[in-house]
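Design a sequence for this backbone.
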């Protein structure tokens, strides 16, 4: 019945034998610094597709293959390299009607569709390529997005600004608590650039030229920095 008391006594003895040292837990101030940079995107991506309805599966498939062939030729004619476009969806689905007298849903035809994802490495050509696709028969254009391909490199200047921002904050806390900053103990980076815009364009053919605004993308970086602190000299 005395075992719990013995265990408690042994545990206390261990704590007394191994006191925590101040060096094990260095005093520090840890803050986050932030910085942003706005840059124009240099890559655009869009989806283009064709859909065809026919009485039989073969007729729908044949018509769709012919339509997509024209779309791919239009991409090639617009200067898009083959490596920059890829089939993203291919389907052939039955279409059902409604028999009011029996309540049955017979197959009335078939719909074939084909979509391709296109990378455009010159964003000034986006509108012209969309017009070329629509002119070639694409009847579903959408999921347009812009991005910066060299985001990490462009953030280098912002990283220096983020560290400076972190030091500014740390110095404020140091003055408020009566200490001085020492050497940085650790630096870590967080955050990632986010796409500025993603949207879907109308699927209907456009009579007027496509209006596309790439805008700018804001890239951000966050750093977490810990500084050693020491008492001010009297």
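Sequence:
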């Amino acid at each position: 019945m005395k075992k719990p008391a013995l265990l408690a006594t042994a545990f206390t003895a261990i704590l007394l034998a191994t006191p925590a040292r101040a060096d094990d837990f260095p005093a520090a101030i840890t803050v986050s610094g932030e910085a942003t940079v706005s840059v124009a995107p240099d890559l655009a991506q869009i989806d283009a597709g064709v859909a065809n309805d026919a009485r039989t599966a073969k007729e729908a498939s044949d018509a769709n293959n012919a339509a997509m062939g024209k779309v791919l030729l239009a991409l090639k004619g617009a200067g898009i390299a083959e490596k920059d476009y890829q089939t993203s969806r291919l389907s052939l689905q039955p279409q059902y009607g409604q028999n009011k007298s029996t309540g049955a849903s017979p197959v009335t035809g078939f719909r074939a569709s084909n979509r391709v994802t296109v990378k455009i490495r010159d964003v000034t050509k986006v509108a012209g390529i969309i017009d070329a696709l629509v002119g070639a028969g694409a009847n579903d254009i959408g999921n347009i997005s812009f991005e910066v391909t060299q985001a990490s490199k462009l953030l280098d200047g912002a990283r220096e600004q983020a560290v400076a921002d972190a030091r500014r904050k740390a110095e404020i806390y140091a003055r408020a608590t009566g200490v001085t900053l020492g050497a940085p103990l650790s630096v870590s980076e967080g955050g990632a650039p986010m796409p500025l815009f993603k949207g879907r364009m109308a699927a209907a053919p456009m009579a007027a030229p496509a209006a596309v605004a790439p805008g700018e993308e804001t890239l951000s970086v966050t750093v977490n920095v810990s500084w050693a602190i020491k008492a001010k000299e009297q």
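The longest strand covers residues 217-231.
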